[in-house]
Amino acid sequence: SNIVFRKDYTAPDHQIESIDLSFDLIPTCTEVTSKIIAVPQEDRKSDDLILDGDDLTLVSIKIAGEDSFPGQYDMRPGKLIIHNIKERTEIEIVTRINPRNNLELSGLYMSKNNYITQCESEGFRRITYFPDRPDILAKYRVVIRAPKDYKDLLSNGNLVEQGELLDGRNYAIWEDPFPKPSYLFALVAGNFVAQEQKVTLSDGREALLQIWTEPANKGKTEFAMQSLVKAIKWDEERFGLDLDLDRFMIVATDDFNFGAMENKGLNIFNSKYVLADENVATDQDFANIEAVIGHEYFHNWTGDRVTCRDWFQLSLKEGLTVFREQEFSADMLGDESSRAVKRIDDVRVLRNSQFPEDAGPMAHPIRPESYRSINNFYTTTVYEKGAEVVRMYQTLFGKDGFRRGLLEYINRYDGTAATCDDFLNAMAESNYEDLSQFELWYSQAGTPRISVETKWDEIAKTFTLTLRQNNRTFPGKPAPKPLMIPVKIGILDDAGNDIPLQLEGEDSPDGTSRLLILDEAVQSWTFRNVSTKPLLSIGRGFSAPVIFNTEYTREQLAFLARHDSDLFNRADAFEKLTLQMVDQFITDLSRRGAQNAMPSESYLFAFEDILNDDSLSPAYRAKVLEMPSENYIAENRVLIEPALIREACDLIKRRIGQRLRGSFEDKIKNNQTPGLYRPDAADAGRRALKLLSLSYLAYAQDAKAMQQVRNLYKNANNLTDRLGAVNIAVQASLPIGEELLSKADVEWKSEPLLNNKWLALSTQLRTQRGKRPTVDLIRALTQHPKYQDHNPNSIYALLGTFFRTGGPEFHRPDGMGYQLWVDSVLFVDKFNPQVAARLARALENWRRYEPTLSNLMYKALKYVSEEKNLSPNVREIIEHALT
Ligand code: HT7
Ligand code: ZN
């Protein structure tokens, strides 16, 4: 397979005005008839109409109503080329496909006996021959015929007709009034129940909302429906963007490669982002559902109405829509402290998974330059870093300026396929700003590092800040240029108050937070009237996706953690303090005999201070005091030693639990959530602080805490607590860990959502001396009835979680973890290359591990690379990892 380059883009020679599709649904032999109107473009380079096709059986072609004859068309691998299309021409193509065999879950496939489609990014070509590229926008009319036991036949747009055919089968006809790219096509057929609701839109129109699920899941869609209504209202209020359809549908399915899909008017969701009640979903799941429902809905404008010219522009819709989703979730929370929790969470995702990507072999700009398989580029760089880049426009221009720019972009490009440059220009022009340098965020990969230097002149009362940016260089690429980086800062005085900020040349101070624009390699700013010893707070609210290399002392970090008026930076200072301590523990432990190591008194003091600060919300305290993940700690070290990281973390948690017992017990007592379960932020925050406290006590092997964990499991009226209890028990290696896990195995009724939770929990079992290695258990669990061999959610829950978070249980010096990785990647690649490629990424940062492990990882990668029939998806990941 070939590499595709962004620079090679050329506009299509033919547009498709409309497509009439008809489906005769049969599991192993569905017939698809496609009638397209092809329109040659004035400035075309060729009269050949090039159609894509993958895994199709061609039955017949008619051109302009006539049966085709030899020489009128040619077949090439993956292409059907129809010659001599010099005028507007109708072409009818009949193909056969096999949805039952489609385990890739791309194109038309079956989930149990229901038919589902997934067309982004290149699935439509697995349904019929078509120019499957996002800059071809056509009007769709769809006829679905299915056996009479298929009651619900859905597609995009408006239902124009439905009924029974003479032979007793059912049919439905749908028409989508909005031209769309093929990747937004959707079809669903099956037997569902629908939750329905009507909403009145801002212009007085009424729209019908429907959430379709299998009958067994009736009653689990209430929260998703509320989320959808909130999302509709939010987009109206924040951006003046209304729902443009009379009907908006969501379908939930258990078999899905990704989170969800924004097909026009017919969103298809992984059921874990739709279905919820207190027994199958945790607080985090509820929050995710609100976010993903919002995300897909917001795509209706940013993705569907304005789409992408080519797949290199993916971040144009994804970065923007993630940003809109983040703002929506934050607005649903309201108060400052909850908003800070959301920001901390989003930044953790970025630092935990995007920073390593940007520092590793798969690094790419948010607008990639080339790919082998576009499906490998649905990455945290394109999504989350892309969202940070979009956020920077808002940081630069304010909410009003951002809204003006977004609406200008939509006005200019409505109904068309746009580029990242188009977005940038709309933003720049509607805010009268030159953003030519800002463009580099789209073309340069790597996380910028900024060194920070400060100087206080006590006599002159000036404070000078010098920032120096350093961007990652890539062999064979031009040297990186300085980026335009918005840096939000504040300065604290020695009592912890913000100093009013007055730059040299200004007549009077203006505010206590300032946005500095760093747009050169090195830049300095001098502030006046700084009469007490100042302490800098930098990158407030995480104003840019960069790393600040600051050289704070422990005391300074503890001071910021206590006083910074910016809640994000308070948390950040505390995190830095924790990371410093973890480093110290690792150093001590590696020299052995350091089992007595203790966190410093000042650390414990800062910790307890936050824990007991009732002016901070429980959610915020829980978020700040949670130990950084082992992966995040690894990311911050030069050499990764998983066993040492684990040992240090466990020991620190044990010590904290021992020392702060009283405060933790107090938090457990005071953060109960009696009465009916409510998934709102306030109650969720209390549960989080309670579980956090219980967890530290469990690490201290506190007898009372163990009893509390057991009781919590038994008496909980919700899954957050129940699952939290098992999680604590297994992670803290409590004697009851395995017992609770087996109880949950039996008691959690067979339900895909719960099965996957249970599988993921099992991966957290710690291997104890003389006991069966966890890796053995994971391998054995691939035969467990809760595990579905071909189901992506199963694979991610068990294998994905283990490879990503398994720590020393996965990174074993005997290589058994990597052997399971090899076997899994090769097994999954045979039927679902997209999912296999995601699993494959677990080893890409092998170079950073201690030599014994990195050697074994290298061998595992090499072994996979020697497999002859590797999919292009997995091949691309492995090749990058090895070069
Ligand atoms: N736009 C959607 C992407 C998606 C996808 C991509 C590749 C393979 C399968 C997929 N399913 C959905 C999801 C989104 O960002 O909203
Ligand atoms: Zn998206």
UniProtKB/TrEMBL annotation:
- What is the protein name given in its UniProt record? Aminopeptidase N
What Pfam families is this protein classified in? DUF3458, DUF3458_C, Peptidase_M1, Peptidase_M1_N
InterPro entries documented for this protein: Aminopeptidase_N-like_N (IPR045357), Aminopeptidase_N-like_N_sf (IPR042097), PepN_Ig-like_sf (IPR038438), Peptidase_M1 (IPR001930), Peptidase_M1_dom (IPR014782), Peptidase_M1_pepN (IPR012779), Peptidase_M1_pepN_C (IPR024601), Peptidase_M1_pepN_C_sf (IPR037144)
Recorded E.C. number(s)? 3.4.11.2
Q: Which reaction does it catalyse?
A: Release of an N-terminal amino acid, Xaa-|-Yaa- from a peptide, amide or arylamide. Xaa is preferably Ala, but may be most amino acids including Pro (slow action). When a terminal hydrophobic residue is followed by a prolyl residue, the two may be released as an intact Xaa-Pro dipeptide
The prosthetic group or cofactor this protein requires is: Zn(2+)
Keyword set includes Hydrolase: yes
Domain Peptidase M1 alanyl aminopeptidase Ig-like fold: where? 446-550
> Would you identify the family this protein belongs to, as annotated?
Belongs to the peptidase M1 family.
Domain called Peptidase M1 alanyl aminopeptidase C-terminal: residue spans: 555-882
This entry's Gene Ontology molecular function terms read: alanyl aminopeptidase activity; metallopeptidase activity; zinc ion binding
Gene3D superfamilies annotated for this entry?
Answer: 2.60.40.1840, 3.30.2010.30, Neutral Protease Domain 2, Peptidase M1, alanyl aminopeptidase, C-terminal domain, tricorn interacting facor f3 domain
Q: What enzyme class is recorded for this protein?
A: hydrolase
Q: Which UniProt keywords apply?
A: Aminopeptidase, Hydrolase, Metal-binding, Metalloprotease, Protease, Zinc
Q: Which domain of life is it from?
A: Bacteria
Residue intervals of the Aminopeptidase N-like N-terminal domain: 32-184
Q: Which GO terms describe its biological process?
A: proteolysis
Q: Where is the Peptidase M1 membrane alanine aminopeptidase domain?
A: 223-438
